[in-house]
Amino acid sequence: MLLIPLKIGASNRVVAYTVHEPPEISLDPAERAEQLTFVKDGISWAALFFAPIWLLAKRFWLALLVYVVVAIALGGGLTLLELGQSWGVLAYLGLNLFVALEADSIQRWSLDRKGWHMIGSVSGATTRECERRFFERWLAEEVR
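The chain above was modelled as a monomer; its predicted structure follows.
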């Protein structure tokens, strides 16, 4: 039997990011590094509870338009089916859950529409570790 020692209070959490750069890139590696955007994979808790406000704050206009159209269609459908308010609450929670689970994809899609390119992905125990790992690898490739 293999025993694996466990640290009390240790976290096995892994954070993953995709890294994107704008269409017009600088030749200077330091300036180019400042322009990079890290998009975290995973659920967005803010989008779960405040999806339309989150979409508005992030300036995802097209996604917000789709959200409003779907919300209106849900409301209309629930009214036509004469379902109670509890079904409406569940339907809107489901819509917000969908937005929260797809928040990272919405952000990547928005960047892609603006001409940004995904140049890599990285994972680690913390955000700081992810950034360090990415830039160590990226700078080694830039020097070549």
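The two ends are 47 Å apart (CA to CA).
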